[in-house]
Amino acid sequence: RGGLRRLEAARLAAAQRVRENQNELINAVAAYFGQAAQTMALPGNVTARRHVPSGHSQVARIHNRVVESVQSLQALTWDVAVRRASVFSQALGIGLTSYLAHVSDAAKVAPSANGGGWPEIW
Q1: Which of 103 and 52 is assigned the larger pLDDT?
Q2: Does the predicted TM-score (pTM) go above 0.70?
Q3: What is the DSSP string of 17-79?
Q4: Which of 5, 21, 65, 75 keeps 20 to 30 A from 58, CA to CA?
C-alpha cells in the first residue's frame, strides 16, 4: 500500500498515462481515417468508412491499453478515497480524545482557591 502522498503521486502518474494513451488512440484513429480517405480517393473506390473495424489490430491494441489504464486509475482513485477517509477518521479520533482529555482533566476541575471546580451548569 503506502502513504497518502505516495498514493496521490501514483494516481497523478496514472492520470498522465491515461491522457497519453487516449491521445495515442485518437491519433491512431485519425491515421486510420486519413488512410481510408486516401484509399477512397482512388478511382473506382466507393466504399465509405464510418468506423474502425474491430479487426484492426493496432487500434484494438491501443484501445485495450486505454481501458486498462483507466481501470488502473479508477482503482487508485478508490484507494486514495479510502485512505483519505481513514486519515480523516484517525484525525477526528485524535482530536476528540485530546478535547475530552482537556475538558475532563481532574486537576483543572478540582475545587481550589483560584476558581477551579465544575462549571455552574454541571
Answers
A1: 52
A2: no
A3: HHHHHHHHHHHHHHHHHHHHHHHHTSTT------S--TT-HHHHHHHHHHHHHHHHHHHHHHH
A4: 75
